[in-house]
Amino acid sequence: MLTNCHAFFLWWIEFPFPTVPPTLPPPRTKTKTVSEGRNVTFRCGQKIIHKKGKVYWYKDKELLEYSYPGYLSLNEDHMSIIANAINEGTYTCIVKKKERILTTYSWRIRLRH
């Protein structure tokens, strides 16, 4: 005979756990599969930067503020990385003028295995 406690325990074991839906990539995302050690350069906002917009670079939704020698080089309208396991991810550039977004682009970098 099952007690209320046992019935609750069995319900908990059999309860289907929800799965987390995959995170959708940002719109306008290009996927690049590259060999490890390859230098990859992204260009952004070259045609609209003259409108006094400012370019912001992100990796996996985190703002990139500094260059890291040997890994990442940030410039106004382009950014370069050396492809490795640490640098895999989604890179996004957002060109803003004040709070208005002028354009965004994203690239997903995957290593070729």
From TrEMBL:
InterPro entries: Ig-like_dom, Ig-like_dom_sf, Ig-like_fold. The keyword Chaperone does not apply. Residues 1-22 form the signal peptide. Keywords: Signal. Residues 18-103 form the Ig-like domain. PROSITE patterns: IG_LIKE. The keyword Magnesium does not apply. This is Ig-like domain-containing protein. It comes from Callipepla squamata.
